[in-house]
Amino acid sequence: MVSRAILASMLLGLVVAQAHAQSPGLISGDRNIKEFLGRRNCLCSCNAMKDKQFYITMRDPADWYTAVSYCTSIGMEIAEVCSTSELRALQQTMQEEENSGEGLYYWIGANDLGKNGTYRWALTGRPVEEEVQQWAEGEPNNAQPNSDREETEHCVGVEVSSQKWNDFLCSEEKKFVCQRYPDN
């Protein structure tokens, strides 16, 4: 029997591959992947599994789309937090990696690309539960920092020292956290 984690990883890989086939510029963050992630309805469950492991890659910072793609390319997924215990594990992983992380953010899989203000996980498409949301004061604000561009903030980063969430332009480059489930 195929595990849920493997099935979810395969499904995300298919989404990325299909979107990339439609538009070779996908990984640079063009509109096609936004539309794909926004309308995708995934059959994968988002159950807290005590054996989930979070990893911070040694790769250079990347935009959110590249982070999603990179995690998939190494057999993992961009991090999702489905319970308070997973939230604590993610926080611990980031704090162990960065001793002085003030102002340093890591991408996770939360985004509102499908519907502004409705945050979902990239892997499963499920809503981000309120109990795990750790928004900084005044966030999410969907700001448009560059008035020359139409892009607004849709992708979530977690600040290392405060562990607070913020929405950012998906095209910004940040470190990121991947996750995996150990083989049974």
Characteristic terms for this protein:
184 residues, alpha+beta, Mannose-Binding Protein A, Chain A, seven-stranded mixed sheet, 4 helices, 7 strands, 28% helix, globular, carbohydrate binding, C-type_lectin-like/link_sf, CTDL_fold, lectin, signal
Topology at a glance:
Blueprint (H helix, E strand, L loop, with lengths): L3 H19 L8 H9 L13 E4 L7 H10 L3 E2 L5 H14 L7 E11 L2 E4 L33 E5 L5 E4 L6 E6 L4
Helix pairs in contact: 1-2
Instruction: Determine Rg (CA atoms, Å).
Output: 15 Å
Uncertain regions spanning at least 5 consecutive residues: 1-49
The major beta sheet can be summarized as: 7 strands, mixed
Encode the helix/strand succession as letters: HHEHEHEEEEE
Question: What global shape is seen?
Answer: globular
Number of domains: 1
| CATH superfamily heading | Mannose-Binding Protein A, subunit A
Strand content: 15-25%
What is the mean pLDDT? Answer: 75
Spatial gap, N to C terminus: 11 Å
What does this protein look like?
It is built from four helices and seven strands. The chain has 184 residues and is α+β, with helices and mostly antiparallel strands. It has a single domain, classed as Mannose-Binding Protein A, subunit A (Mannose-Binding Protein A, Chain A), CATH 3.10.100.10. Strands 1, 2, 3, 4, 5, 6 and 7 form a seven-stranded mixed β-sheet that branches. Helix 1 packs antiparallel against helix 2. The chain is globular and about 45 Å long.
